[in-house]
Design brief:
This protein is an alpha+beta fold and 253 residues long. The protein has helices spanning 10-13, 26-29, 64-70, 76-83, 88-98, 107-118, 134-146, 167-172, 207-217, 245-252, and strands spanning 2-3, 35-40, 43-46, 71-74, 105-106, 124-125, 151-156, 163-166, 181-184, 191-194, 200-205, 221-223, 242-243. It contains ten helices and 13 strands. A hairpin with a 6-residue loop joins strand 9 and strand 10 (191-194). Helix 5 packs across helix 6. The longest helix has 13 residues, at 134-146.
Length: 253
């Protein structure tokens, strides 16, 4: 599903020229590419009858083969429908707060989100943070193969272009790609960027190629405009609706 490009708030817009790369326009920061698609990482749902086959625990996360076998995807659109949350911006802000990537959340919106994932719904797993979604990793790699690529450069957010790696080698690795990965085709026509604390991945290329990838892989997200930064979802929360980590911890306990 392709959403309309979110309108960024005035609070975000005034930081577009800051030194923080996550506040800069994606297309400005990666200026060698014409277009970018923000791919929203899917929620996961353990398939019926498979709860005893897979466990999601910090430090003991299942590998991509297990996730692909025992889980199915839930879209952000479906989560918004189930929770009656306002839009993808409020859902992303709630996710950032839940993962402690943001200090504040909007109380009513966060309550809707938290009820879904914690009240009798232990089978729903929030989107993967810091990594490509394991459930889609091999599908993305096979799509690159179908486009004629046999190898890609793999590197991190703190490295320059890394070593050329066989796609078949990555497909066979059960642990998947590393955290905060950059994956770039040898001809520099496609760049995949997953950053620290983010619930989404930026795909960069030309519009025609991105549309083909999004449609064939059934990805959910939106295309960036010239101003869209990685902080696209943030907005000023009124003080009367603002909650912090302490309030969340007290409610949990």
């Amino acid at each position: 599903m392709i959403y309309r490009t979110p309108e960024i708030s005035d609070d975000v817009r005034k930081y577009l020229q800051s030194e923080n790369y996550q506040s800069k326009s994606v297309l400005e920061f990666y200026s060698g590419f014409q277009d970018s698609f923000v791919w929203l990482h899917p929620f996961l749902k353990v398939k019926e009858g498979c709860a005893g086959q897979i466990r999601f625990e910090t430090g003991n996360w299942p590998d991509k083969i297990a996730i692909g076998t025992y889980c199915e995807k839930i879209s952000w659109n479906e989560v918004i429908r189930l929770t009656d949350m306002r839009d993808i911006k409020s859902l992303d802000v709630s996710l950032a707060f839940y993962h402690r990537a943001s200090r504040f959340a909007e109380r009513k919106e966060y309550a809707k989100f938290k009820q879904l994932i914690e009240k009798e719904r232990v089978d729903i797993i929030p989107p993967q943070v810091d990594k490509l979604p394991e459930i889609d990793e091999n599908r993305l790699l096979k799509k690159l193969q179908s486009l004629g690529y046999n190898s890609v450069f793999i590197y991190s957010d703190i490295q320059s272009k890394g070593q050329l790696t066989s796609i078949e080698e990555i497909l066979s690795d059960r642990n998947g790609l590393p955290f905060h990965v950059r994956m770039e085709t040898p001809d520099s026509q496609i760049l995949v960027v997953q950053d620290f604390d983010q619930r989404f991945t930026c795909l960069l290329s030309n519009k025609t190629l991105l549309l083909d990838m999004v449609e064939s892989l059934d990805l959910e997200g939106f295309f960036c405009d010239q101003d869209t930064p990685q902080s696209w979802s943030y907005y000023n929360i009124p003080d009367t609706e603002k909650m912090d980590w302490d309030e969340d911890m007290k409610a949990t306990n």
